[in-house]
Protein 1
Amino acid sequence: MSSEHPDLSADATVASPPLKPDAKENKKNVTVIAALWLVLTAIGIALSIWLTSALLPSSMSTEMGGVRSTVLVFSLAAAPVVAFVLATSIYSLLAWRKAPGSADVPPPDAPPLRGNAAATGIWLLTSSVLVVFLLVWGLSEWSAQQVVQPNDLVVKVTGQQWIWNFTYPDAKVDSHALVVPLGRQVQFNVTSLDVTHGFWPVQLGQQVDANPGLVTTIRVTPTHLGHFVVRCSQLCGLYHAYMYAQGDVVTAKAFEQFLEHHGASAATSAKVALLAARQGGQ
Amino acid sequence: MRRTIGAVGFVALLSGIVALVGLGFTNQTYHSSIGTLRATTSAATTACGKPMVAQQLSFATYADSSGTNSAGQLVHPGGNPNWPSYGPSNIFSVKAHACVTMTITQFDSGGALNNPYFDSIQGTVGDVATMVSNQPSVSGCPSGQSFTYKGTYHQISPCDVGHTFTMRALPGVDPGFFLSVPLPLAGNGNNECDLDSCPKVTVTFSFISGPKGTYAWNCEFPCGLNVGNFGAVMSAYGYMSGYLHVV
Amino acid sequence: MTTLSDKPLLEHTVLSTAAGRLYRRQNVFTAIATGVVLAALVWWITNSIFSGGAWADDMTTVCMLTAWVVGFNLGIGTFNAVIYWMLGIDQTHEDELYAAGVGQGRKRYLKYCTDHKVVGTQYLVLVFVLFFVGGTLAMMIRTQLLSPHSSFLSPQTYNSIVTIHGMCMIIATIIMVSGPFANFIMPIMIGAKDMAFPRLNAMSIWVVISAVPCLVWTFFLDGGVNAGWTTYAPLSVQDGTAMDAFAITIIVFVVSVTVAGINTIVTVATMRAEGMTFGRLPVFVWGSVIGGALGLYAMPAFLISMCSMIADRATGTSFYVASGGGVGWLWENTFWIMGHPEVYVILIPPVAAMIEVIATFARKPVFAYKVIIGAFAGIAGLSIMVWAHHMFTTGWAPDLAGPFMLTTELISIPTGIIFLCIIGTLWRGSIWTRLPMYFVYLFLWNFIIGGVTGIYLSDVPADNYFHGNMFVTAHFHYTLLGGAMIAGAAGLCYWFPKVSGRMLDERIGKVAFWIIAVAFQVTYMAQFIAGAKGMPRRVANYDPMYHVENFVSSLGAYALMVGWMVLLYALVVSWISGEHAPANPWHSKTLEWHVPTPVPLENFLVDPVVTGDPYGYGEQGPAAAHVTFEYDGDRGGHP
């Protein structure tokens, strides 16, 4: 019966005498990994800058500007971390791969490093510093977005299966398209008539769910004229894929015309748009 | 070598199973008894007030999707007797940049919209439609107030709606396109009658079709069950929803 | 197969009674028959009671599927021991041996078998079935998305496929390591003869098997579940009866996970061999315990939310319906209180398994053993306080954005420790690049990308752009498929010789590896790009501006599926006709490699005595030979 148990003493002899890391060898490892790390970090930084500007939509609001800068800064912060993991794992394959004795016999045991307090400490410290940085950056961006400016334009957003519509309470105007004036903070009061939808004006860099029976609020300040898309970002059933609306950031003058076209009296349109002009400096 | 052949065979076998499952799922999609309903082209060279191709398309809404219409066509193959349906097809085809005149015969009863926004017509020529009925009037809402079917309309009371025909393009086709027509309710109470002799209201409107591509239409009147009355028939593809192919 | 007599041992047993004869006939087929009969009966009764009522369909579906699950388990024998106990009949040792499958050959794999190795193997097969179902549904999704305005699937069918693909994969990944390996391998690793509760162990697998048909059946009920695997209320309250079947699936699955989790914890607490102190437990054992404990915390929230979902649907309560005073945010909270810890229930066991792989193939002790155990515990502890990061954009409690950003970003510290320990173990190792090690390197690449893309989502201002968009889809596939499943594949290839008794064909395995590795990057990198450009998730049609990304992603997904099929072929063909595996082909030090292959009933012919931890590679003394086998008089074996 003893034959059914592998002979443990054989394994034991492999390990004798105990192996010790070679200091000179270690120095070489560290140097090459450091070089590899620098190269990969440089590539990571280049990729971060290029991809952030190439992929994300161009900024149409201060909030979208915040998204772009946050993504860029986080990518730059992550680049050295990713580069370190890749550099060491690539180097381990290049330098430490050992040919086995034969097909079924493992290579000889390596020096038993059961831990390294300094390495663990540095690692913990570095990751803690990074986390604090991410948090501080995120909170400062976030709190900047919470500032309510006077004379903001209120737009009521109603989601229902599978259409958006927008009401401008000041001008008593309903619209299927979302038109907002340039340079003036817009407050969206978002609600739903049936299930949960996600109100996401894509290029404005903000979103909030539309919940039945509740009103949720987000604010954006458009900074560039142009066209944007409002998407539903929360699966809402059959025609979720078709639940979108068109949006435009327009000048105060064009905004006034838009309100008039949708049935607001000329006086009301001018009043609502005038506030926009005052704030936007148009 | 043997194992290479084995691997290829094994992958082919499993891929075959995957493909069969795929076929099973495509067959689940709704196919109407008559397939795509294509618009007919009339001889007129001027339509919608401009020189352009004039096309006509007629279909109906029925209270009982398991029934048969007066032309003997199944309203909705495999339909549910408690569910209404557009029919006899939910897939339409029209020409691009043409003046399309749609005639929708409404056989179903109705009630109040979730959102009064859909009580007015948007996106048709002149933002109006015309209605004709074999009923002189119907007791609509507020309750007891009589509602008369009269010619051209832009807006109806938000609680006199039977269904709506609401359409937008698939993402990226024609972003600005939006068409919504409320169809007044026909008859009183629960109407289970799908034939020409039944109480009905016929709505006619024209719109200018956009560029080539697919457009999705649905009904915005809450004629289903559960939350918002948008469950059951409203969320089951093919009854109160479909596509318009612009070719 | 076993050194014990294979002769039927029927004298002086319950098995010799009339009830016992029924017992011996029980297998998966009688289970299906009993389940169907009971379901039909209950359907007829409930239908006649509730017919015409407002919630008749929902009530009937719930009662019928409950009857199916009860009937199936009655038919397989889940309740046998309880019934005997209630009748006052004691089971004898021979009964126990019969229940453990002695003398039943391969048929025991189709029966209620208490042997932890049989249960583990049953789990392994179930996991592959679920992955195949989920993968097939993924192919449907990707085929629909090949072109922007495809009409391959109706939008309703598409939504139901998205839902079941998600839930099928979630169930499969939760059990993919904690099912097969925490059952088959973990007890041997700690020197136990079986799990602490062998009958509950068998129950955990057959209960989850009875849940799977309910999940698949949703496709045949009212057009399927259209609310996504997250089944956000009130959309899911609006759904047809398929949602009832979905809820029953989850409730039954939670029972299974709970039973399995308790079993794992109690086994490790009470069944360790002499000398197997907590400080000597292999990392995988710690991973199984922490994963199991976290499941015990997370899953009840799912149970409660699904019960109230059924109440809303079948009895007209309004937990989630605004018109009755309910709120969808309640669902979103309870769902994610389950949903985020659940991610780590999925992740921790395979990563822990992978660390065993790394120690063996780097021929080094695990680097910073105590630190990595602490990291797992830290992840588990933090993971119960991060759920609302899934709700940053819902509008719920905006003032908690800061605290939840903090906890979410803190979790990257213990996650980073896992990378440290992996790199530390590889550091100056003798890297033996066998197939399991290939998957380790793929994990490192995938998981660092999955982790880094997570930090954008953890940050409220950036999440306001990425939430609900394809970027999220790519991110969690990088962590769950690229991370957890790839780590699980490393564990599978590592333990395959012990589980199957055969060596894995690594030539085919490496072909599969390269297809998977490359196709995975193509599939999900393309989705990252589509997401960054603003494409929403879970849409059946999309703007043609994302066509290239989706076309490439679909081709990558097809190749990825082929890669997994090739790996499955390597497993199947090796299991059938591979060369016989020696007891310890990797010259590994953990205990499971020091029992014979195939592993006999009750694992150890003689009881092991542990004298050191199992990572003494390159060391002298007790650490090098950390286990001795002691003569076990009770069993009559000879050392």
Protein 2
Amino acid sequence: MPDLLLELFSEEVPARMQAKAADDLRRMVTDKLVAEGLVYEGAKAFATPRRLALTVHGIPVRQPDLKTERRGPKIGAPDAAVQGFLKATGLKSLDEATIQRDPKGDFYVALIEKSGRAAIDVIAEILPVIIRTFPWPKSMRWGERSAKSGSLSWVRPLHSIVATFGIETEEPDVVKFSVDGIEAEQTTFGHRFMAPAAISVRRFEDYEAKLKAAKVVLDPQARKDIILDDAKELAFAQGFDLVDDQVLADEVAGLVEWPVALMGSFEAEYLSIPDEVIRATIRNNQKCFVVRDPKTGKLTNKFILTANIEASDGGKTIIGGNERVIRARLSDAKFFYETDLKTNLEARLPKFEQIVFHEKLGTQAERIKRIERLAAEIAPLVGADVEKAKRAALVAKADLLTEVVGEFPELQGLMGKYYALAQGEDASVAAASEEHYKPQGPADRVPTDPVSVAVALADKIDTLVGFWAIDEKPTGSKDPYALRRAALGVIRIIMENGLRLELYDLFTLADIEILLDIKGVKLDRQQISLDELEKEGALSHESAVRMRAKLIDRLFSDEVSNKEHEEAVGRLFNLLDFHVDRLETQFRSTVRPDLVQAALAIQLEDDLVRISRRVEALGKFLETDDGKNLLAGTKRASNILSIEEKKDKRSFDGAPDAGLYNLPEEKALAVAIDQVKGEAAAAVAEEDFAGAMGAMAKLRPAVDSFFDKVKVNDDEPAVRENRLKLLNEIRAATRAVADFSRIEG
Amino acid sequence: MDALPDHMRPERSFQGFILALQRFWAEQGCVILQPYDMEMGAGTFHPATTLRALGPKRWNAAYVQPSRRPKDGRYGENPNRLQHYYQFQVIMKPSPPNLQDLYLKSLAAIGIDSSLHDIRFVEDDWESPTLGAWGLGWECWCDGMEVSQFTYFQQVAGVECAPVAGELTYGLERLAMYVQGVDRVYDLNFNGREGADKVTYGDVFLQAEQEYSRHNFEHSDSEMLFRQFTMAEEACRKYLEAGWKDGKREAHLMALPAYDQCIKASHVFNLLDARGVISVTERQSYIMRVRELAKACGEAWVHTEAGRAV
């Protein structure tokens, strides 16, 4: 079966758009082929800076013939209906229609046969539409034709199109179409500088090979491999290691058609700049790789660039030019770094008073103060020194105002650490600057130093409680303040460090501070408008003062405080739920979700470690025979109860009457329940969940024999009621560890 | 090229370098203009680009434009930052299909051989908020250094470009430094002579950089500049209003004088900005005010003889 080769040859396509464009091209063409009944065997798309290419193989030569039946009017229907039918189906007369028998009356049926068209003709129709509607993130017009409306838009000027169709053994046909004056042909061009001549191509294999001969590596993955392999080799030859950078390699692969790795160097004096700053400078601005000395683990004064040509001087000029630029850039970076070192981090803090964190939540300075207070509260709970935690919270964000972080925002925190160490801060305090942002994602590590832990938790909790307070919770896919990530961070910091914290209390502490700052923002705003009114003469000074006093009274009145308190409770429980939901998601990979539900349903719980211990113990218990049987018994009790409760429209709460027991199994069960209840409660109080489950296990024989021997629905209503109450006691007793009714199976 | 005396060769002298570019683009049919006689932040502000980019008529031009960036002054102490420097600007409307090739040939004409150097077109979308303009194109890299800006104008002064013009901007000092192999802009050989006859870029401009840095950052008369901004803005509006022929919005007779006032306002704003007397919030509103002028001028221009559809 024939193959299609398509190439769209243009001026340089932005590197970041190439991969998606190749994918879009493949998807759009193959979707359309399938929609036209042309089911293909395989397809692959490629991109270089100057071309998008697609090969689709195994396309049928023709579309299948289509036969459709169309139901017409009943026999003897009015002429207008018959004429309409003939017109719609293209039949010349009713003689060409068949008649279908039907008990409700026979009717005409037209058999329409549409013969399939040649695939090449269909493709010639499909391709111009796809090119015209291609989803580039940004596209443009160009040249003479852009004077008229309806001219083609492409990411950059499109120069030529290759489109051939044919089977392997024969000369393929050109798919004949044109888009805005560009005719599809079978001519492309090689490397811009090394082989610019026209190349005639027939089919994919020959296209790819000829391009390679013309110094174009079509496959981006192949270009990336060449870049990384050659770069590693260059580094290795000098006894160094390449600092692996897949993202950069992808980008560079989108900037060249013929990658040539070259090594350059810079003055060793620049190695006094932190490695991360050197790397950011060389990587972000110059798209070059950096190189590490395996002996020291530090960067060396080398870099690796990827040229797009094999230069006639072996690359000497190119290396020289790149070295000049990198030298200038590093000289700037060194200047920035050294300038930053001259200012104490603390001295930068007043500037935060001018920087708004969020219009409703006040300035960065206010936020830092809140984090400092909260970190001081958390510190003793996580084993951190209170003064260190406060100090760390105070300076942790100061590097945001430094030159280096202004230039390379991704170095926030890390630079803070360097600057803090340079000014002689305690090592834990300095580390918190970097660590308090962690974890940044599921793959990132969690802070472990107590000081960092305190600041990281304070930072995240302040963010969460703050946005909850102004009702900016994440909705659906919208989470502009990354609150889900913050909550997951809180959870991971707590769980992975085994911290025992009552989250709700911490939320409350944060909330009180935030509400005060929100009120501060409101007061400031009012003050500004009052000042303006006063300046304009619309308000006397006395009334302005009076109005302000009134607002203060109102904002801090008992009535407002009470209402705030009520709202805060609901809001913070909601935030706690948000965390518990995330925790469940965390558990889900290892624990059955119904067990988590069962463990969480019995009481309000804000100690995440305790939740997880309970879930863990429950999981283990349910794997034992005792557990399984007790679960079955409890479920049976629950089922009977819910049926009877429905029937009687009442519940069977309350203690059973010991005087009404008339079977030994009843009495035995009552005794067992009492005993287990006490033991389990004691064990739970000690957080000995395994012990509590062990106590539960003792319930099993009594429950089993109760169901064996006792008929719950006794004829005597009082006995029946008493037995149902006893069943309710089973349910109640097991609730010491979990809500068994939520467990599946 | 062989006939050139040594001191005129592009790799020997700054002036020879400029002349080589001019000659190259003259050969491509561009009119070689002289710099516009007003202070402006970039060659794009020249009416030969901003206004001529609009309307359907063909237009091919190239020129050097002294560009003023008051904020970039460094008292002559930075090796490559200047508050006054030269841009070489090419505009071709409609953009010819071989504009990239022409650009590469122009590099060859100033001594940059594409078999020796790594020349790259790296994505860079251009936008000028003050001119209400945007386009797509690249920054052109030579051995890792940005040497030119290449843009296909899509919109200028709020008006869609039809046809689209291609614009090239060369940073002359930076390119010349590369070609001459010097690391400090003031060391550029200006006239290509040696010994006592040699004149450097520093001889010509160092004192100016020091004086203008003082002026831009410390002494410019803010009060006067604020007044000038308002005056230029008002004059621009007045001329635009008066320019409509017979008071009907069909033909405009004074787009160019009005646009001069827009250029003026823009430069005055840059001076105020450098002086640090415009707050962050005000800044945005000044940019908007200049853009409104630019848009109104663009609107007037497309109703003039040179800007009108035939």
Protein 3
Amino acid sequence: MVSPEIRNYLEDVRLHLRLDQATEGQVIAELHTYFQEKVAELRQKGLPESAATRAAIDSFGRAREVARQMYEAYGKGSWLDAALVSLPHLIVAVLFASHLWNHLLLAPLAFIAIVCVTLFGWWHSTSNWLYSWIGFSLFPLVIGGFIAYPAFQSAISLLLEGREVSVTQLLALLVVSALLLFFLWVIFKTIIRMVRRDWILASLMLMSLPVLASWLVNIQEQGGLFQLVRNPQPSMHQWDASMATALAVLGATAATFIRVRQRVLKVTAVVTIGSIVATVVASNLLGRDDPFYPPALFLFMLIFLVTPALVEARIGHGKSSEIDVFSHY
Amino acid sequence: MQNSKSDYTSELLRGNTENLLLHLIDEQGYAYGYQLIREIEKRSGGFFRFKEGTVYPALRKLEHEGLLQGEWQEPPNGLRRRYYRITPEGKEVLSKRIATWQGFTMAVNLVFKPAGAR
């Protein structure tokens, strides 16, 4: 039987652990055993239940400090994890460096491989390397959204103007709307799921998307992705070297995230370097002469990468009922 | 003055908690968290006073690094506990750390000796 004070204390530890659910359950179960033994021992020495509980909690230390130390115990990944987390960045960087991003076979194959590894990792691994792969797996959905949006926009304006719309156009509108909603739903659900574990993993996952989205906007302005694939233009490769460099830097940042133990360093790496790289790329690609544009862009990127923290503050870190360690261990 | 003494002891202990745990587990074959806390207190004659919550992250860190292996066990009529045993890699790391520690303390003692006694 767990006293309410100990249950609250363990819940406080759990809320700040930010580990995968299975490990959290194991950790809390082990700490629970400690409290059972400690309280029993203190009671044998003659302390009443409430005093023994208080003394046990005092001797254990502050819940947040224990959670911080526990987070750091698991914080440092192996070199293999570091290589794996940077691999999707490097795959896409190579596509840009070799000017093969418009290759009809290689580019889709690269993204299919990334999605396959993501799905494999989703079911078989709890390691943090998976999160950058999830981020790149979302990119085809972002492309889908970019491609579907103009069709959606023109169909809506036809309807608003009261012009006659054929059944085929109406069906196309429904399909495109459903696809857009589906893309948004998948992205939203993935972000929420990541945030429930740890907002910084959601930021790691999203880190490359502003860079890729800026490039995509630039490509759309040059005539659109499909158009450029069908009729390649020499100018479409002018940003390839910058994109390859930016993705390589983000890959190195993701590897640093895995190798450092302290949370503050992880947050600094992802949020600061992620924002700087995205700002540099977006400033160059979307070229605006306004001197306030880069600082404004940096602020936007910073807010974008910190948004998962705000979402976490709103929705919390899972529910205690999801991990009922006291009945399982 | 008292505070700076206890801060120094805590700092020394923090730097050596993992080694103490590795050594005790190696010596006992396998052990669980609370058993190790009591053993450290008993053997140090109460000299090492620390927040007991620091032992569990240290055990988990050693396990994550592959130096210990943890396993849940439930003895008949007992509490379900997580027992740790040292891995071959842990033994290797421990012997290296003990050698380093012995070299370090010997060097410190040599420096601390009065000049005339050397």
Protein 4
Amino acid sequence: MGTLARLRVNARSLRKRYRWDEVLSAYLFLSPSIALFFLFKHFPIFYTLYLSLHRWRLGIVDRTFVGLHNYRLLITSDEFWQAVRNSLYYALGSIPLNMAISLTIALLLNRQIRGRAVFRTAYFLPTITSTAAMAVVWMWIYHPDFGLGNWILSTLGLPRIRWLYDPQWAMPALIIMGIWKGMGYNIIMYLAGLQNIPQHLYDAARIDGAASRACLRHITWPLLTPTSFLILIIAVINSLKAFAQMHVMTDGGPLGSTTVIAYYLYQHGFEFFNLGYASAVACVLFVVLLGLTLIQFKFLGPRVHYQ
Amino acid sequence: MMSTKVLTRSRERSSVYYLGRTIGNMVVYAVLIIGAIAMIMPFAWMVSTSFKEAGGIFTYPPRWIPSRFVLDNYLDAWRAAPFGRYFLNSIFVASAVTLGQLITCSLAAYAFARLDFPGKSLLFLLVLSTIMIPLQLTIIPSFLVLRELKWLDTYYALIVPFTVSAFGTFLLRQTFMTIPQELEDAAKLDGCSRLGFLWRIVLPLSKPPLASLALFTFMGTWNDYLWPLIMTNSREMRTLQIGLRFLVSQEGGSRWGIFMAATVMVSLPIIIFYLLVQKQFVKGIALTGLRG
């Protein structure tokens, strides 16, 4: 929050008296934004909280106040905890590997190499295309009989897998696709981080006779920590929001093995129209995401400020 | 700098060093090329399948080059679902959202950057705080609000809630603040109104952030999935992403030629768009670090 406080101290705002025409224009200019933000952002927070204390199935059961009943249901529901475990599995399976590969590629791309632009385009292409469309392509790749996935496995002499049809392999399949899809963004972020490291540090180290491996360990790695942290937080937030690929590829199955928390929320809210219960799930998810976003802001704040 | 050159030159003289560097470079290129092939492979597979005739799709081992190039899949996909309508919907919604954001963000950013009024810091905080409110939290109340307004399954539901952006407001405010006050005073002397100053001077001076904002907003809206899935109901209102999903789920899991042709149609415009504005895009991400 330090940044916000600093932003508030705006030299021009020290003036005490306001001019009425300036105030009027300001409010006029702000009114569309404020109105829409209020209607679709601020008001919904309180309304979700309010709804989470009610039992309400749209068009079936009328709204009645039930106190914390929904939260009690939630904590004791095996399905909810399975969704939490699935989300954790997805996050832990994709994020560390994704970051390690992205950092490696970024370090290689940061050298003086030919065709850098071509490589960058190739690595970034999956990121800009839509998750839904790429999910359809990966369904075909994961086809048990004619898909590329099993062809690669058998070329390597490994046994074939039923991928999305196997409760044990459906989540790893989504993780592989997630890494492929998300790498481009992380690579760009790492490249930006690498270019922010001042060249004179490397020059100085070289004069002192440092080998390139030592430079990597004592200059690049420590100075990249803020970038890595930023990427980590964004990745965790995104993985908790992951939805489209599950909805297109698996419908949360087989046997609920890919029902992540965002999918669980969708199911209860918009398939069963169990709005009270779904609101309780949303509130729990919000608390987790808010915590992560606040951490991200603490690190992102200064970055934005220096521009 | 001098000493660095001398030092490296003395090291470069040894042939062992040369050999090591060449092998090192080869490893770098090998890793990058293998990685790039892995990234491109799904796209190649998609395109290759989309041109195969029905009999050529289910072959093992897979064939990369179709034995006969046919366009049937594209025609069949176009016939199987109203893709023309989906295209129009996606283009219209993404353009309207982008235009709306450019307008509301410019106005709000101008007020926050260059005007004084009571409650300024509180309102700015209120706007910024919305970055921290995830869609998942607001989607049920939004659904109910849109239902009350009788906007469900209309363009309003897909456009209006997204015509504001805290991120865009913040980005533009940072730029607007750098425009010197003397410029505004001079414009005022010449009888230029606030809106006139914003339109004729501030916006033309802020092209890069405006372009970044437009780019991210357009692509984000084009690729969006959860919102149009929930807020639309009829076939006529679906965007490309939702239309594609329903094509796949309704046709059953066997018509891969058609599915891949449809996927090419859905993703090709955004790929071409990206190739055209690539530099701007990469710069935008590095600049803002916020959207992905």
